[in-house]
Amino acid sequence: MEIKEKKSKGLKREFEIIITNKSIDELVQNKISELAPKANIPGFRPGKVPHNIIRSRFGKQIFGEVVNESLNNASKKIVDDFKINAATQPKMDVKSLDEGKDIKVNYSVEVMPEFKAPIH
To answer: Average pLDDT over the chain, rounded to whole?
Structure first.
């Protein structure tokens, strides 16, 4: 996962999140490995379903879950690494979301202004 700060002007912060196809494939394969021992598909003994069958039946759902988890992790990483104190809900604008390609997302958020309370 790669995070680049694109814009830091005023109270608006914009970032570009790039999640490589290789990392998504690894996460999908890990998720399939987790599901395989629990899978119960007609025609196969419980827990003995081949990974390619699981991928063909549930691949899109698994891909969606992995992408969602990856974007949530990226959002947390941005908040932690750049010390963002968000004033608004972050917006994620997906630029490319195709299986077999890198995923690109624009992430924008407005931050709370920094100010000091006057001393009486």
So the answer is: 91
pTM assigned to the model: 0.83
Which residue range(s) make up the domain with 94? 2-110
pLDDT digits 0-9 by tens, 42-51: 999 988 999 9
User: Distance between CA atoms of 59 and 114, rounded to whole angstroms?
Assistant: 45
Partners of 109 in the β-ladder: 13
CATH code of 19's domain: 3.30.70.1050
Number of helices followed by number of strands (H, E) in the chain: 2, 4
Residue 16 has pLDDT above 90, yes or no: yes
| Residue 15: both structure tokens together | 């970032």
Q: How far apart are CA 14 and CA 79, in angstroms?
A: 12
Q: How far is CA 58 from CA 38, 72, 81, 84, 109, in A?
A: 14, 21, 34, 36, 33
Provide the pLDDT for residue 51.
93
